[in-house]
Design brief:
2 helices; single chain; 2 domains; bacterial flagellum; cell projection; FlgE/F/G-like; alpha+beta; 28% strand
């Protein structure tokens, strides 16, 4: 079979991989703090044994993420927080400490401060944060949490904990299948006192829907081109076989 078919098939497979990443980005347009997933492919020459270039194949480049900040949306909700500039919230997962920009927090049935996915948000000392029952919570710009219990005197406001805010180099972070980021070498990042946040806001996804839609359309056209190449190669082979059969 003509090697052209394998070359076109390889290109089609890479296109489908990138299309999957773009689809995931579009599905998370409204996910707070989501970071756009990048899926890049590049062409490489296919060389014959005597090092002559015959065709060009496609390989997937190292996938990454866009760390540009998303737009800030004011909600006025007491448990909504957003990081100004660079930085991350620390959360606890079954695989250890992880990092997110999603600041739409909640208090679960056990009075723990958690993300919308139910993951405990960590304090400066790496512990889970207990919120007083039916307490009114406020956040300072450095992540300090104060709470006033239901029916308590305003003078009895207490400092509950301080959020662990980190800012490791983006090159050290790897995205997990759960959409959270972790240190590539494992372990936990050190808290960074320079990271600041604001309450009553959430950070939106940094995915541009228009650009994602354009990317999907472009990929669909590229895939059609690859399929056309495979069809043409198959047609040429059938014609060649018919000529050989006629001559024989």
């Amino acid at each position: 079979m003509d090697r052209l078919i394998y070359t076109a098939m390889n290109g089609a497979q890479r296109i489908l991989e990138q299309q999957s990443a773009i689809t995931n980005n579009l599905a998370n347009v409204n996910t707070s703090g989501f970071r756009e997933q990048l899926a890049i492919y590049r062409s490489v020459p296919v060389e014959s044994p005597d090092t002559r270039t015959t065709r060009v194949a496609t390989v997937a480049a190292t996938p990454g993420s866009s760390f540009e900040a998303g737009a800030m949306a004011e909600t006025g909700h007491a448990l909504d927080v957003a990081i100004r500039g660079e930085g991350w919230f620390a959360v606890r997962t079954s695989q250890g400490e992880a990092y997110t920009r999603a600041g739409d927090l909640a208090v679960n049935a056990d009075n723990l401060l958690v993300t919308q996915a139910g993951l405990p948000v960590l304090s400066l000392d790496g512990a889970e944060i207990q919120i007083p029952n039916q307490g009114t919570v406020t956040f300072s710009s450095d992540g300090q949490i104060t709470a006033l219990g239901a029916g308590d005197n305003p003078r009895d406001i207490q400092v509950v904990a301080q959020l662990k805010l980190v800012n490791p180099p983006t090159g050290d972070l790897r995205r997990g299948d759960d959409g959270l980021f972790r240190l590539a070498q494992g372990g936990a990042a050190q808290a960074d006192p320079s990271v600041s946040m604001v309450s009553g806001f959430i950070e939106k996804s940094n995915v541009n829907p228009a650009e994602a839609m354009v990317g999907m359309i472009a990929n669909a056209r590229r895939f059609e081109m690859q399929m056309k190449v495979i069809q043409d190669a198959n047609t040429n082979e059938e014609r060649a076989n018919s000529i050989l059969s006629f001559n024989s």
